[in-house]
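anyone seen this seq b4? input:
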Amino acid sequence: MRFEDLFKNAGQHGDANANDVTSPHMPHVPLTPLAIPEKKPKKRRSYRTIWISDIHLGTRGCNADMLIDFLDHVDSDTMYLVGDIIDGWRLKKKFYWPPMHNDVVWRILKRANRGTRIVYIPGNHDEMFRQFTGLNFGGVEIRRAAFHDTADGRRLMVLHGDEFDAVMLSHRWLAFVGDWAYELMMKLNVVVNKARNWMGLPYWSLSKMAKHKVKNAVEFIGKFETLVARAAKQRGVDGVVCGHIHTAEIRSIDGVQYYNDGDWVEGCNALVEHFDGSMEILNWADEIAVRETCEKDRNFEVLGEGAV
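predicted toks r here
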């Protein structure tokens, strides 16, 4: 498929294609018992747009509990699911779908039910959904790629990014071998963080540390970012949002703003747009750590006052 073909259904402003098959009524979200009950924080953060990707539901490395916490604390007018939401590669080999993964899907559908615009751009791990490009299921628009206009007037193209992965394009078999090795690293990551949790330590990504220590991985990330930014410049847009490489980033490359929204197996990141058009990467593990520290401080103050 040519790069230009990715955008034939994107729409001039990222709107739904005229040939969409859209249900006249939003389906009711089933009120089945949740593994993690929905939290009702006193004040939820509100953003104009949220981008998340590389959740990899269906794998043991997915930090579903942290993503659920994120979804319970933030709202947005629009949410982009930028690929690899469900890991079809892994599910084909061995089915793994714990209740928390169902909770994630439930919360996304409920968000659509509340009126949030949800745009789903499948990646390489959930490529089986690409055949439904242009359709709308339960308020979730499925696109091969999209355009987004920020509040401050910039135009961004949004795509998963595997289209620019030379390994995926030229040596698909090698990508599957790499997936196996990565899955092993994710299993080790789970064990390490269970031990850290037992010791009262915050979340830490073993695989993320390893990636940044390996010279070839760093070079690959740099080449990937350059290729994506170059393609965005050829399209005449101001910036690009992607995922795929599990490395959250905001930087300018040759006059194009490059955004990567990270992932939910290593960094647990989201890219957000504020209502003035400014952009920010959230690291949710850090957000939880700050929140828990504040709660401990408040409890300590209350206990201290009681002691006096």
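Confidence is low (pLDDT under 50) at residues 11-27, 167-178. The two ends are 71 Å apart (CA to CA). kinda curious what u guys think
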